[in-house]
Amino acid sequence: MERAEERLVSMCEERARMLQEQFGVTVNHVHALAILISTFHFEKNPSALDQDTFAKYTARTSFERPLLNGVAYAQRLFPHEKETFERQHGWIMRTMNREAAPLQDEYAPVIFSQDTVSYLARMDMMSGEEDRENILRARETGKPVLTNPFRLLGSNHLGVVLTFAVYRPDLPADASVEQRVEATAGYLGGAFDVESLVENLLSKLAGNQDILVNVYDVTNASEPMAMYGSQTPDNQVDLLHVSMLDFGDPFRKHEMRCRYGQKPPLPWSAISNPMGCFVIWMLIGYIICAAWSRYDKVSEDCRKMEELKTQAEAADIAKSQFLATVSHEIRTPMNGVLGMLDMLLGTDLTMTQKDFAQTAQDCGKALIILINDVLDRAKFEAGRLELEEVPFDLRTLTDDVISLFASKLRAKCIELAVFVSDDVPKLVTGDPWRFRQILTNLVGNAVKFTERGHVFVRVSLAENSTMEAKRAPNGNLNGKDCKVEPTANGAFNTLSGFQAADERNSWEYFKLLLSDKELLSDELEGKKSSQNDSDHVTLMISIEDTGVGIPLHAQDRVFTPFMQADSSTSRNYGGTGIGLSISKCLAELMGGQISFISRPSIGSTFTFSAVVKRASKDTSCASERSLSEALPTAFRGMKAILVDGKPVRSAVTRYHLNRLGIIVQVVNNMSMGIQAFGKNGATESREKPSMLFIENDIWSYPS
C-alpha cells in the first residue's frame, strides 16, 4: 500500500508541475502581446494597429497560445470620451446583455479581437460585475488576473479568463498603485480552455488510465469550484493526494486532486481460476460483438450517403434542365418583342417616337440580360463561360445604361450623372455585353435603394485612380476612416451635396481626374504617356449612391448568391440577390475585381475594375455613335456660361456640354454669372456667350 501511495504522489506532482509550466508559457505569450499593443498602438502616431492587423497577427501566432480560445483588447474609456469614440468607430458600445451601455464612471469597449472571439467586439467589459473586478485588480497589481471557472462559448468546456492591464510606455518600473491606475490604457484578455489543457497534458503521460485527476479553484475553501474532472465520492477510493497549483494570480488558489481510478490491482493468482477466465472470455466476446455492430452501422451509413449523393446529383441535373427550359420559354417572346421594336425603328419615325422606341428596345435588352443571369450562374459553376473580344465605345455604352434609369430617377428627383475621364480610350476591345451586365446590375441596385441625393457613375483608368489617392491629403486607398467635411452651408462637396460613403468622389479627389491642364501634374502627364504605349488598360468604374447603405452585419455576405441584407429587402425593394454575385464573377473573368464601401443611412460606393485592350485607330465598331450625329451641328463652337455652386456637378455638366462641342465657362453664383454674361447681353470680350445655364437650386435660391 505504501508503494502505491508513493506512486500516486509522484504522478500527481509531475502532472501539477507540467500543468503549471504550460499555463505559465501561455501567460508569458499573452504578456508579450500586451507589450506589443502598448508599443505599436500607443507609441506610434498614428497607431500601427487596427482590427484587421490584430486579427491577422493573432491568427498567425495562435500556435504560440494553443491553450487559448482567443484574445481580445479593450480600450479604457471615460464618460466624456464616449460620444466621440462611438462616432469615430461607427458603432455603439453594448453591455454583456447586448444592450446600449448606460452612463457609468468608466468603460472598456473591445476594439481588437481575434476572429475566434469576434462576438466580443463592441462589448463593454466593465459592464460585467466579475469582469469589472478583475480589470480593477489587474491594473492595480500589474499582474495577470483570473476569473472564476465558467462554461466557454462554442466548446462548452470549463475555462477561465486571463486579464492583463496594458499600460502606456511611460510607466516607471517601480510604479505605485496610483501610477499604474493612471497609466492604464486598456486591457488584454484571453480565454483559457482548462479542460482541453488538462486533457492534452494527461494524454501525453504514461499511466493516465491509472489515476483520476480533478482540478479545483479553492479560493473559497468552503465552496471549491471544479475546473476539470468528474466528481467522485471520497468513499470509492482509499488514496487521495492534493498538489497545489500556482497560475500566477496571487488572489486565487488552485489545487489538483489525484486518486486511483480503482483499488490497487490484485495478484494474478486471484483471477487465474475458471471464473476469472470466464469473465475474460465474456469481455472478449462483448468487444467482438460491439465491433461487428459498429461495422454494420458504418456500412449502412455509407450506403445511405451514396443514395443521398445520387439523389442530389439527379436533382441538380433536373434543376439545370428546368432552368434551361424555362429561360428559353421566357426569352422566346422577349426576342419577338425586340424584333418588332427593331423593325419599328427601321420605319419613318419622329425624333421623339424614335427615342421612345429606342428606350423600349434598350429596356428589353436589359431584361434579356437579367433573364440570362440564372443561366450565367450555372455556367460559372461549370467553368464554361467565355468572354467576347470586340471593339466598343465605352462612352456610348455608359450613356445607354444610364438612359435606362433616367426616367425613374427623374420621377424621384434624384440626380443621375456619368463621367468618363478623358484618359479613357474612345474605343476599347473587350466584352461589351458582360461589361454592360455588370454596370446595369450596380446602377440598378443604386437606383433601387436611393430615395434622395444622387447616383454617380465615374469611369477612369486604374493607374490614375491610384495616383489620385496618393496625391490626396491623407493618401487613403482602401476607403477606411474616410471623412468628408461639409462646407460652410452644411452641404458636402459631392454631386448633389449629400454625404457619400467614399470621399474619393468628393471634389478634392474628383478634380484630379479632370483633363484641364492646370489640374494635371507632371507626374500624371508622364503616366498618361506610358499608358498610351501599353496594349492593355485597366478601367476603374465606381457607382456611388446616397441611399440607405448596407447594414454592418450584412456586409460580409453581400456577394453570396441569393443572399440579401435581411428578410425585408426582397419585400420592400424586390430582387433575388444574384446580381452582385454574377457581377463579381464577371469582373474576375475580366481580370479585375469588385469591392464596396458602405455606411448605413449614408450610402454605398461599389467599384469594379476590368482589363481591356486599346482598339487600334482604324478600328470601328458597329454600335459606335457620336452625340454630334443626332444633334444639330450648330452647337459646335458655341460658348456658354454655367452657373452652379457644386463643383462636382458643374464639372460633370461641363464634361457633357464639351462632348457637344460647346465651350463652357463655369461660375459659382448668379452674380458672377450676370457679370460674366454682361449687361444686356454684351460682354467685356468681343465674343459673347450664346447660352446661359443655371442650375435649378441656384435659380430657386439665388442668394
UniProtKB/TrEMBL annotation:
Membrane topology (UniProt): Multi-pass membrane protein
Subcellular location: Cell membrane
InterPro entries: 2C_system_His_kinase, CHASE_dom, CHASE_sf, HATPase_C_sf, HATPase_dom, His_kinase_dom, HisK_dim/P_dom, HisK_dim/P_sf
BP GO annotations: cytokinin-activated signaling pathway
Keywords annotated in UniProt: Cell membrane, Cytokinin signaling pathway, Kinase, Membrane, Phosphoprotein, Transferase, Transmembrane, Transmembrane helix, Two-component regulatory system
Enzyme category, top tier: transferase
Pfam annotation, one family: HATPase_c
Catalytic activity entry: ATP + protein L-histidine = ADP + protein N-phospho-L-histidine
PROSITE patterns reported in the protein's UniProt record: CHASE, HIS_KIN
Boundaries of every Histidine kinase domain copy: 325-614
GO function term, MF aspect, one: cytokine binding
Domain annotation CHASE: ranges: 45-257
EC annotation from Swiss-Prot or TrEMBL: 2.7.13.3
Function: Cytokinin receptor related to bacterial two-component regulators. Functions as a histidine kinase and transmits the stress signal to a downstream MAPK cascade.
Protein name: histidine kinase
Source species taxonomy: Eukaryota, Viridiplantae, Streptophyta, Embryophyta, Tracheophyta
